[in-house]
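Researcher: Next entry in the queue.
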Amino acid sequence: MRRLGILISGRGSNFAAIADSIDRGRLDAEIAVVISNHADAPGLVVAHNRGLRAIALPSLGLDREVYDRQLISELRQANVELVCLAGYLRILSGRFIREFPQRILNIHPSLLPAFPGLDAQHQAVAHGVKFSGCTVHFVDEGLDSGPIIKQAAVPVLDEDTAETLASRIIKEEHRIYSEAIALVLSGRYRIDGRRVIASEQL
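Model: Structure for this entry, 202 residues:
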Protein backbone atom coordinates (compact mmCIF):
# COMPACT_ATOMS: atom_id res chain seq x y z
CA MET A 1 0.00 0.00 0.00
CA ARG A 2 1.35 3.43 -0.97
CA ARG A 3 2.38 5.72 1.87
CA LEU A 4 1.24 9.33 2.04
CA GLY A 5 2.72 12.17 4.05
CA ILE A 6 0.19 14.92 4.76
CA LEU A 7 1.34 18.46 5.59
CA ILE A 8 -1.15 20.78 7.32
CA SER A 9 -1.19 24.12 9.07
CA GLY A 10 -4.73 24.30 10.45
CA ARG A 11 -7.91 22.28 10.78
CA GLY A 12 -6.97 19.73 8.15
CA SER A 13 -10.36 19.25 6.48
CA ASN A 14 -8.76 18.07 3.24
CA PHE A 15 -6.60 15.65 5.21
CA ALA A 16 -9.74 14.28 6.91
CA ALA A 17 -11.42 13.87 3.51
CA ILE A 18 -8.41 11.90 2.24
CA ALA A 19 -8.52 9.70 5.35
CA ASP A 20 -12.26 9.14 4.81
CA SER A 21 -11.60 8.07 1.20
CA ILE A 22 -9.05 5.54 2.42
CA ASP A 23 -11.39 4.22 5.12
CA ARG A 24 -14.20 3.79 2.57
CA GLY A 25 -11.96 1.91 0.14
CA ARG A 26 -12.05 4.63 -2.49
CA LEU A 27 -8.32 5.32 -2.25
CA ASP A 28 -5.77 2.51 -2.04
CA ALA A 29 -3.18 4.17 0.18
CA GLU A 30 -2.25 4.69 3.79
CA ILE A 31 -1.39 7.85 5.68
CA ALA A 32 2.10 7.30 7.08
CA VAL A 33 2.38 10.61 8.91
CA VAL A 34 0.59 13.94 9.39
CA ILE A 35 2.89 16.90 10.07
CA SER A 36 1.92 20.44 11.01
CA ASN A 37 4.13 23.49 11.22
CA HIS A 38 1.80 24.80 13.97
CA ALA A 39 1.75 22.89 17.25
CA ASP A 40 -1.85 23.95 17.97
CA ALA A 41 -3.26 22.92 14.58
CA PRO A 42 -6.68 21.27 15.11
CA GLY A 43 -5.83 18.80 12.35
CA LEU A 44 -3.25 17.17 14.61
CA VAL A 45 -6.03 16.30 17.08
CA VAL A 46 -8.06 14.85 14.22
CA ALA A 47 -5.06 12.71 13.21
CA HIS A 48 -4.46 11.52 16.80
CA ASN A 49 -8.13 10.62 17.16
CA ARG A 50 -7.88 8.52 14.00
CA GLY A 51 -4.90 6.66 15.40
CA LEU A 52 -2.49 8.15 12.89
CA ARG A 53 1.06 9.28 13.53
CA ALA A 54 0.87 13.04 13.99
CA ILE A 55 3.85 15.34 14.48
CA ALA A 56 4.06 19.00 15.41
CA LEU A 57 7.13 20.52 13.83
CA PRO A 58 6.92 24.27 14.57
CA SER A 59 8.41 26.50 11.91
CA LEU A 60 8.24 29.90 13.63
CA GLY A 61 11.57 31.68 13.48
CA LEU A 62 13.33 28.97 11.49
CA ASP A 63 15.09 29.54 8.18
CA ARG A 64 13.18 27.81 5.37
CA GLU A 65 16.11 25.58 4.37
CA VAL A 66 16.77 24.57 8.00
CA TYR A 67 13.12 23.80 8.60
CA ASP A 68 12.69 21.87 5.38
CA ARG A 69 15.67 19.65 6.22
CA GLN A 70 13.83 18.64 9.40
CA LEU A 71 10.67 18.07 7.40
CA ILE A 72 12.46 15.93 4.82
CA SER A 73 13.98 13.85 7.63
CA GLU A 74 10.57 13.13 9.17
CA LEU A 75 9.04 12.18 5.82
CA ARG A 76 11.99 9.93 4.97
CA GLN A 77 11.76 8.19 8.33
CA ALA A 78 8.10 7.47 7.59
CA ASN A 79 8.99 6.08 4.12
CA VAL A 80 6.60 8.51 2.46
CA GLU A 81 6.10 8.04 -1.30
CA LEU A 82 3.77 10.96 -2.02
CA VAL A 83 3.59 14.29 -0.16
CA CYS A 84 0.17 15.95 -0.02
CA LEU A 85 -0.18 19.57 1.04
CA ALA A 86 -3.56 20.02 2.71
CA GLY A 87 -3.88 23.60 3.84
CA TYR A 88 -0.14 23.88 4.42
CA LEU A 89 0.49 27.62 4.58
CA ARG A 90 4.21 27.70 4.06
CA ILE A 91 6.25 27.98 0.87
CA LEU A 92 8.50 24.98 0.31
CA SER A 93 12.18 25.44 -0.45
CA GLY A 94 13.71 24.36 -3.73
CA ARG A 95 15.64 21.75 -1.80
CA PHE A 96 12.43 20.16 -0.53
CA ILE A 97 10.83 20.14 -3.97
CA ARG A 98 13.91 18.57 -5.55
CA GLU A 99 13.90 15.90 -2.82
CA PHE A 100 10.46 14.69 -3.96
CA PRO A 101 10.36 15.38 -7.72
CA GLN A 102 6.80 15.17 -9.10
CA ARG A 103 5.76 13.58 -5.82
CA ILE A 104 4.28 16.64 -4.10
CA LEU A 105 0.64 17.58 -4.63
CA ASN A 106 -1.23 20.69 -3.56
CA ILE A 107 -4.89 21.72 -3.55
CA HIS A 108 -5.67 25.36 -4.29
CA PRO A 109 -9.09 27.08 -4.03
CA SER A 110 -9.24 28.59 -7.51
CA LEU A 111 -9.16 27.52 -11.12
CA LEU A 112 -5.46 28.02 -11.67
CA PRO A 113 -3.73 29.86 -13.22
CA ALA A 114 -6.33 32.37 -11.99
CA PHE A 115 -5.80 33.73 -8.47
CA PRO A 116 -2.68 31.97 -7.18
CA GLY A 117 -1.42 32.63 -3.66
CA LEU A 118 -3.45 33.65 -0.63
CA ASP A 119 -7.10 34.75 -0.42
CA ALA A 120 -8.07 33.17 -3.73
CA GLN A 121 -11.79 33.20 -2.88
CA HIS A 122 -11.66 36.90 -1.99
CA GLN A 123 -9.85 37.59 -5.24
CA ALA A 124 -12.51 35.73 -7.22
CA VAL A 125 -15.37 37.70 -5.64
CA ALA A 126 -13.51 41.01 -5.97
CA HIS A 127 -12.81 40.40 -9.67
CA GLY A 128 -16.43 39.54 -10.43
CA VAL A 129 -15.72 36.22 -12.11
CA LYS A 130 -18.72 33.99 -12.78
CA PHE A 131 -16.89 30.74 -12.03
CA SER A 132 -14.17 29.79 -9.61
CA GLY A 133 -13.34 26.39 -8.16
CA CYS A 134 -10.35 24.36 -7.09
CA THR A 135 -7.24 22.78 -8.57
CA VAL A 136 -4.99 19.87 -7.63
CA HIS A 137 -1.54 20.33 -9.10
CA PHE A 138 2.01 19.08 -8.86
CA VAL A 139 4.21 21.42 -6.85
CA ASP A 140 7.15 23.01 -8.61
CA GLU A 141 9.37 25.91 -7.59
CA GLY A 142 6.88 28.55 -8.73
CA LEU A 143 3.81 29.83 -6.88
CA ASP A 144 0.88 27.47 -7.57
CA SER A 145 2.34 26.96 -11.04
CA GLY A 146 2.91 23.21 -11.39
CA PRO A 147 1.14 20.93 -13.89
CA ILE A 148 -2.60 20.66 -13.23
CA ILE A 149 -3.95 17.21 -12.38
CA LYS A 150 -7.63 17.89 -11.66
CA GLN A 151 -9.99 20.85 -11.45
CA ALA A 152 -13.59 21.42 -10.44
CA ALA A 153 -15.62 24.52 -11.32
CA VAL A 154 -17.94 26.25 -8.85
CA PRO A 155 -20.33 29.05 -9.88
CA VAL A 156 -19.82 32.41 -8.18
CA LEU A 157 -23.23 33.74 -7.16
CA ASP A 158 -24.10 37.43 -7.15
CA GLU A 159 -24.65 37.36 -3.40
CA ASP A 160 -21.45 35.43 -2.62
CA THR A 161 -18.88 36.57 -0.12
CA ALA A 162 -15.42 35.06 0.09
CA GLU A 163 -16.70 32.91 2.96
CA THR A 164 -19.80 31.55 1.24
CA LEU A 165 -17.84 30.83 -1.93
CA ALA A 166 -15.14 29.06 0.09
CA SER A 167 -17.75 26.86 1.77
CA ARG A 168 -18.90 25.55 -1.62
CA ILE A 169 -15.43 25.25 -3.11
CA ILE A 170 -14.16 23.14 -0.22
CA LYS A 171 -16.78 20.47 -0.89
CA GLU A 172 -15.27 20.05 -4.35
CA GLU A 173 -11.76 20.10 -2.90
CA HIS A 174 -12.68 17.14 -0.70
CA ARG A 175 -13.90 15.24 -3.74
CA ILE A 176 -11.16 15.87 -6.30
CA TYR A 177 -8.10 15.64 -4.03
CA SER A 178 -8.56 11.92 -3.43
CA GLU A 179 -9.28 11.40 -7.14
CA ALA A 180 -6.05 13.17 -8.06
CA ILE A 181 -4.04 11.19 -5.51
CA ALA A 182 -5.47 7.94 -6.89
CA LEU A 183 -4.48 8.93 -10.44
CA VAL A 184 -0.93 9.84 -9.44
CA LEU A 185 -0.45 6.66 -7.40
CA SER A 186 -1.77 4.57 -10.29
CA GLY A 187 0.94 5.92 -12.59
CA ARG A 188 -1.60 6.01 -15.42
CA TYR A 189 -0.73 9.46 -16.64
CA ARG A 190 2.01 11.42 -18.35
CA ILE A 191 3.17 15.01 -18.08
CA ASP A 192 3.44 16.89 -21.37
CA GLY A 193 4.78 20.35 -20.63
CA ARG A 194 2.25 21.81 -18.21
CA ARG A 195 -0.41 19.22 -19.03
CA VAL A 196 -1.17 16.06 -17.06
CA ILE A 197 -2.75 13.55 -19.40
CA ALA A 198 -4.50 10.49 -17.96
CA SER A 199 -3.81 7.20 -19.72
CA GLU A 200 -7.46 6.86 -20.70
CA GLN A 201 -6.83 9.80 -22.98
CA LEU A 202 -3.58 8.48 -24.51
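Model: The radius of gyration is 16 Å.
Researcher: Noted, moving on.
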